[in-house]
Amino acid sequence: MKTIFITGATSGIGKATAELLAKQGNRIIICGRRSEVLETVKAELSAFTEIFSLQFDVRNLEEVENAINSLPEEWKNIDVLINNAGNAHGLDPLSAGKTEDWDSMIDGNVKGLLYVSKMIIPGMKERNSGHIVNISSVAARQTYINGVVYCATKKAVDVISEGMRLELTEFGIKVTNIQPGAVETDFSLVRFKGDSERASTVYAGYEALKAGDIADSIAYCVNAPKHVCISDMTIYPAAQAEPRTIYRK
C-alpha cells in the first residue's frame, strides 16, 4: 500500500486516477481548490480506502506550503506524487492573447508543479525512494497555431521531468512523464471559458480518450516493479495521428 498525493483530484484525469488507485488499496491525498468538491470526492473514495484532503491552489506558493506542512505525521511520508493540476485558457494568437490567460497557464502548469514538487521531494530523498508522475501533453511534442503559450508550458513539463530524473535517480526516485492526446474532460470547456457548444466540437466525429484511460496508464507506471521506471509515455486516441491531426467521421 502506497501513500499517493494527487493534485487536481476533483475532476477529470485527477479524479479518475484517485478513484482507480484508491480501489487498488492505496492511501490517497486528494488536492484541489474547491473545498466542497473535495469533501464530496473524499466521501466517495472513502468507501475504498483512507482518504485525506488538502484544499489549496497550486499557483499560490504560500497556500502550497501551508497545506503540505499541515499534513498529520502519519500522512507525511508520500510514496507517489502525481502532478496533475493544470489548465488551458484561450486559443488566440500571441498578438491577441490575454496576459491573464498566459499567467494562469504558466503559474498552474509550470510554477504550481514546481511548488508542490519542491515540498515533497526532500522527504523522498531522505527515504531514498519515491515516484513522481508529471502530466504533460502531446502539445509538448508539436506546437500548434494559437496555442503557443499552452504548448510552451507543457514543453516545460517535459524538460522539468527530464531534469528531475537526472537529479533524483541516484536517490531511488522514479520520474514518469505522461503525454496525453485528446482526452474528453472539462479541458476544452475551461479553455473556451464555459462555451459548451465550442468545446463539444473538439471531440466531435471520433472517439476521444477518456479520463479513465489516462488513469489506467498512470496506474501501470506506479505499479511497475521496483527495478522498472516508465520514463515517458505518449497516449493518443486511435483517431489522432499527431497533436494537430485527428481523423473525424
CATH second-level architecture: 3-Layer(aba) Sandwich
Beta-strand fraction estimate: 15-25%
Report how far apart the termini are.
44 Å
Are there runs of 5+ residues with pLDDT below 50, and where? none
Structural classification: alpha/beta
GO molecular function: oxidoreductase activity, acting on the CH-OH group of donors, NAD or NADP as acceptor
Keywords: Oxidoreductase
Family: Belongs to the short-chain dehydrogenases/reductases (SDR) family.
Protein name: NADP-dependent 3-hydroxy acid dehydrogenase YdfG
Concise account of the structure shown:
The protein is an alpha/beta fold and 249 residues long. It has helices spanning 12-23, 35-45, 61-69, 99-127, 148-168, 187-191, 196-201, 211-222; strands at residues 3-6, 27-32, 51-55, 80-83, 130-135, 173-180, 232-235, 240-242, 245-246. It has one domain: NAD(P)-binding Rossmann-like Domain (Rossmann fold, 3-Layer(aba) Sandwich).
